[in-house]
Design a protein that fits this description.
single chain, mainly beta, Immunoglobulin-like, 4-stranded antiparallel β-sheet, 3% helix, elongated, disulfide bond
Length: 192
């Protein structure tokens, strides 16, 4: 029986005993077998098993693809903001094995710290094919006299991904009130 050494590589980098020890029992190497539990997107890539003996060396490679909801978009910018509409641009995150087909745009104001969906199922236009920059305009979703932050979430056939970081804060211009004031009453002035 020949003595054989098995060397495992991930994307060209040798998987060392320290990597296995630091994996919280997610990785296990047993000779020519590599087992991975609770896979993450970082486990995607090319795996190679190199077998060395006194006679020679052989290797075999395989590609592992982990699919899931898309990663969060980045670089969300407000291009145009008016009293009731906004035009946003962003760059997609990783699609994780399935093309992105729609987006959800969320917003929050200075007076309401909770995120609320402005629209679902939005399609975006690719404005730069080299950078993949996307753009969309949302109408009739904002109110005048407000200061907004926006974020974008992408959806593919495998689900909705996490939202982007918030855009910088932008204010809508003033306009006439849409709702009459309520709960108006007399106010007493006290003299001191």
């Amino acid at each position: 029986m020949l003595d054989m050494a098995y060397i495992w590589k991930h994307n060209g980098m040798t998987i060392r005993d320290l990597d296995i020890k630091n994996s919280n029992n997610r990785l296990k190497v047993d000779g020519g077998y590599l087992r991975i539990w609770n896979t993450t997107f970082t486990d995607t890539g090319e795996y190679e098993c190199v077998v060395k003996s006194a006679v020679g060396m052989i290797s075999s490679k395989t590609r592992v693809i982990i699919e899931g909801p898309p990663g969060s978009p980045g670089g969300v910018q407000v291009i145009n903001i008016q009293k009731s509409l906004v035009t946003l641009q962003w760059t997609d995150g990783a699609n994780h094995g399935s093309p992105i087909h729609s987006y959800t745009i969320s917003g929050r104001t200075r007076y309401n710290p909770n995120w609320f969906d402005l629209t679902h199922g939005v399609r975006a236009t690719e404005i730069d094919r080299y950078t993949g920059r996307k753009e969309t305009t949302i109408e009739n979703s904002l109110t005048p006299w407000s200061s907004y932050e926006f974020r974008v979430s992408a959806r593919n056939d495998l689900g909705m991904g996490p939202p982007s970081l918030p855009s910088p804060r932008h204010s809508t211009p003033p306009d006439r009130p849409y709702i009459s004031p309520r709960n108006i009453g007399e106010m007493a002035l006290l003299e001191v």
